[in-house]
Fold:
Amino acid sequence: MTYLMLTGRTVNQGVTVENKTSAEYAAETSTCFMHEFDMMELGLDDRDTVRVTGPCGEVVMRATASPEVEMGTVFVPYGPYANHIVAAGTCSTGMPDFKSHKVEIEPTDEEPKLVHELMEDLGGLAYDR
Amino acid sequence: MIVKDAVCPFCGCLCDDIEVEVEEGRVVAVTNACELGTTKFMGEKRMKNPILRDGDRWKDITYDEAVRYAADMLLEAERPLMYGWSGTHGEAQCVGVHMAELIRGVIDNTSSVCHGPSILAIQEVGHPGCTLGVVKNRADLVIYWGSNPIDAHPRHLSRYTRYAEGFFLENAFRDRKVIVVDVRKTETANIADEFVQIKPGGDYAVLSALRAIVQGKTDTIPRTVAGVTREQLVRVANLCLNAKFGAVYFGLGLTMTRGKYKNIRNAIELVSELSRHTKFTISAMRGHYNVYGSNEVNTWMTGYPFGIDFSRGIAFYNPGETTAVDILARKECDAALIVGSDPAAHFPRKCLEHLAEIPVVQLDPYPNATTAFCNVQIPVAVTGIDAEGTAYRMDGVPIRTRKVISSDYPSDEEILARMYALMQEARER
Structure:
C-alpha cells in the first residue's frame, strides 16, 4: 500500500538526540506512526515491524497506532531511519522533501537495524563505548 | 551550588531563567527547563578524547594531533565543505567563516535543511517580525502554522503565548486566542481554540484563500480548500481581522513541503495583507539554539546567511547549488569539517554515501551518527554548559550563554582558532 510519509520532531526524539547510540533514540526514530485503520488493513498490531520502501531504498521500522495522523499518511520522527529512504533532490532550494515522500509499506518479519548498522551499511564504522 | 538564570542551549527559545544545581563538577538537578533542556543539561555520555579512524578500528589521539589532522585535511582539499554551526556559539562561527575564506571552501549551516526556505522568502518579500516579548505582552491572537511547539519548543506556549501573562491583556489566558494549522492533529492542536486541518501539500492554497477573504473576495472561494471548509476559512479570517495584534509562528510544516519558500512567501504576504487592517507579525520557529546566530554571523561577515561558496575568492551564494545536501549528493566536496550538527542522522542517504568516501573531521561533544563517517572526531565543551558564548534567540535577540560547570574540554572556538592559526601559517609559507 502507498502512503505519504511526513517526518518531524517529537519530544522523545529531542530528549534522545544528544545520545544517538542509545536504544531509546533508535526506538523512537524507527517508529512509523500510522492510522489504526491503515494498520488494520495491513494486519498490523502495535509494535509490529514493517518494511518501508521510498524512492531510494528501504528500511525496517516498527508501526505504532497514532490518533495524530490521517489515513493514508504516516509520521516518522526525524532521524537516520526516515533519511535512509528520503531522496536528496532539493528543487534548487537546498531543502529535500522531508515532509512529502510517497512510500510503500508492508508487514515484515525482519527487525529494525541499529543506528550504527545503518551507518555501516553506507560505509561508516561504528564507534561505541 | 545553584547557578541561577542559566541559558538553555537546546532550542531557539534560549530560555534564560534556568536554575542548574551543580555538585562536584556535575549537573545534578535542573529547574524551569523543559524535558529537552533538562536532558541536555544532564547529558553525560561525552566522548573522552579525540579519536582517529585507523582502518577498521578507532585509535585515541591527542588534541594536537587531531587539530593538525583537521588543518592538513582542509589545506589539501580542493573543494572543502564546512557544515553545521548551529550547535555552537557565535565566536566559533566567526572563526569558521574566516577559515572558509582562507581555503576557498563552502560554508553552510543547518538552516539549509530547516528554515533556509524561510530566509529565501524573506529575501523576496521582507520579514515583518518582532521580539517574543512584544508577542507575550500584546498579542491577542497567535497562529502556529506547520509547527508543533509542545514537542519542538515546549516552553514557547508558557513563556510567550497560550499560558503566558501579557502586560496589555487583562486576562491573557481568556483574551488570547490560539489557532493551530497543521496536517496532523498534534498535541498543540489539542490546546488550540481553533484547529485548521489541511490536507498535506495544501498550505499554499489555504494561505491564498485567506488572502482572498481578507481582500473581500469571499465569493471566489470554493466550498473546501485543501480539506478546509469555506466556513472555517471565513471564521479564521475574521478572527485575524478582529484581533488587535496577531502573531504567526510557522515551522517546518511550511518549509519542508512542496512549494517550500513559496509557502512562506504566501504566509508573509497574508500577514502584510492583514496589517492593512490591524497589526500582524510573522516569525519562524527556529530549531537549534543558535541557528539564527549562524545566519547572523554569516550575513554580517559575507553578506549571505548560509550556503556560501568562496571558491571564486569572493562570497557566492546560490541555494540548491552551494548548499550542503546538494554538494554531497553531487559528490562534489573532497573533505568535510562538521561542527555542532549531525548530518548523518539528518541528511538523505545519498549524502552519507559520499561522506563515507571523503575525509571527515567532526567537532562534537558526543558520539553521534556522523561519528561513523569521521576520520577524526574532536570532543569539545558544550556551549551553555561548560563553555560560554553568544547565541541568537529565534527572534534575533543575542543572549550570552553561561558556563555552569568547568571541564577540561576545549571550546569549539579554541579548537577552530588553533586550526586556523596552523592554516594561516601554512599559507604564509
In short: The domain at 46-114+289-428 of chain B is CATH 3.40.50.740 (Rossmann fold). Chain B touches chain A through 72 residues (CB under 8 Å).
